[in-house]
Amino acid sequence: xxxxxxxxxxxxxxxxxxxxxxxxxxxxxxxxxxxxxxxxxxxxxxxxxxxxxxxxxxxxxxxxxxxxxxxxxxxxxxxxxxxxxxxxxxxxxxxxxxxxxxxxxxxxxxxxxxxxxxxxxxxxxxxxxxxxxxxxxxxxxxxxxxxxxxxxxxxxxxxxxxxxxxxxxxxxxxxxxxxxxxxxxxxxxx
Length: 190
What we know:
By secondary structure, this protein is an alpha/beta fold. The chain contains two helices and 22 strands. It has two domains: 38 residues; 144 residues, 3 Solenoid (UDP N-Acetylglucosamine Acyltransferase, domain 1), CATH 2.160.10.10. α1 crosses α2.
């Protein structure tokens, strides 16, 4: 009898997995509606998006996570404001710490936001050392495609970050930044 129940559980898991994969990758309005309800959010959750912990995820109205974005938030908190979106193939590592994205933020495809990472320290193995730094992105911010935001990054309101930039530290308000590492190119755009 125990063996029968074990196989029945396997069969149930198989069909539930098949059902979830179908909802996750289906482009229909019904699947989109189901994804919103599963994640308990008003945010548009596009196809193949992964949010590891829906309890540590919050997004505002008219926000969106586009195709294949990945929010790795096992123990960390991820929040995104109203009218904000992350382009396709974005990755957020907030296993620990917080990532807070304000209202009216546009994040280009392929961008990586890293709040939790391996690190180095003298006399320790790389795999033993970790760095956690909260990331804050203000309001009315545009982050170009394929940018990398490192732990502890703070981006103030009204900032533009050029594509392929590496961002670490604080970016002041009302300016344009770009480069590896990012540097201020222009002030007073807004």
